[in-house]
Amino acid sequence: MEMWLGEAQIKDAVMTYKVKETLVTKKTPYQELAIVDTYALGRMLLLDGIVQTSIEDEYVYHEMIAHIPLFTHPNPKKVLVVGGGDGGSIREILKHPSVEKAVLCEIDQVVIDECKRYLPEISCALDDERCEIFIGDGIKYVHEHKNEFDVIIVDSTDPFGAAEGLFGGSFYKEISECLTEDGIFVAQTESPFYLPEVVKRVYNDAKAVFPVTKLFMAGIPTYPSGYWSFTVGSKKLDPEYAEIDNKYDIENLKYYNKRLHKASFVLPQFIEKLTRDGK
């Protein structure tokens, strides 16, 4: 008997995947977790029925959310990831030889444990000596650490429920205070096709805090609409015009490169309009 997994990407659109095997399902203190093996995209992590990552296309998301800010900063030494318990962002961060410490602040220990068990390709850097794992509330962690991190990556779930507080102006103000003088932050900010109001609101909230605020895009097959936005905010550095040197061999990456770094900031008209004076 064939088994299919359906993910309601919005209330009127469902994406389905043919499943080989269900590897684990668990109710954690915070959410319903499942990891399944699919025919099309390999192993896949779901939280509360929403696809978070898959083996076959995870590199797009993780390379873009990590390397855009890390190649923008001239010498990133200390990096914070809020969320991201699968470990993919940490894996990409630690490819940068300048990074001395990467802190993963994840609220749900079960996510880390199960990703280590079933998604080792993604979680492989979580045991690196430069990685420090803190289990707890990301908002509280940011509030308690001032002027400490060169780069902050908000690798969160969608802006609903427990993650809703990670998508607001008050949190971005806290992030600004947590960053060093030339610090930079990036957050995943949803699909401009399905949730344009979220993209616009987050951009405007970040713009109210950071002197430099930009939107960049990436194509991610498993995410709703397949076209995903990221918002980056900086005190000084403009990621669109970053001078990208060969800090390490980026030829080994699968998605990110120097040309794409700059090209990802070129926005289609309908997305550019979302960033114009909040209109």
TrEMBL record:
Q: What is its EC number?
A: 2.5.1.16
Which family does the UniProt entry place this protein in? Belongs to the spermidine/spermine synthase family.
On whether Transferase is a keyword of this UniProt record, the answer is: yes
What do we know about how this protein assembles, alone or with others?
Homodimer or homotetramer.
Q: Where is the PABS domain?
A: 2-235
Work out whether the entry's keyword set contains Transferase: yes
**Cellular component GO terms, alphabetically?**
cytosol
What pathway or pathways are given for this protein in its record?
Amine and polyamine biosynthesis; spermidine biosynthesis; spermidine from putrescine: step 1/1
For the ligand (S-methyl-5'-thioadenosine), the binding residues are Q31, E106, D137, G138
Q: Which keywords label this protein?
A: Polyamine biosynthesis, Spermidine biosynthesis, Transferase
Function comment: Catalyzes the irreversible transfer of a propylamine group from the amino donor S-adenosylmethioninamine (decarboxy-AdoMet) to putrescine (1,4-diaminobutane) to yield spermidine.
Q: What EC class does the entry list?
A: transferase
**What's one Pfam family the UniProt record gives for this protein?**
Spermine_synth
An annotated Gene Ontology molecular function:
spermidine synthase activity
| Top-rank taxon, per record | Bacteria
GO biological process per UniProt? spermidine biosynthetic process
Annotated protein name in UniProt: Polyamine aminopropyltransferase
Which Gene3D superfamilies did the record assign?
Spermidine synthase, tetramerisation domain, Vaccinia Virus protein VP39
Catalytic residue positions:
D155
Catalysed reaction(s) here are: S-adenosyl 3-(methylsulfanyl)propylamine + putrescine = S-methyl-5'-thioadenosine + spermidine + H(+)
Positions contributing to spermidine binding: H62, D86, D155, S156, T157, D158
Q: Which HAMAP family match?
A: Spermidine_synth
Q: Which InterPro entries match?
A: PABS, PABS_CS, SAM-dependent_MTases_sf, Spermi_synthase, Spermidine_synt_N, Spermidine_synt_N_sf
Q: What is the lineage of its organism?
A: Bacteria, Bacillati, Bacillota, Clostridia, Eubacteriales
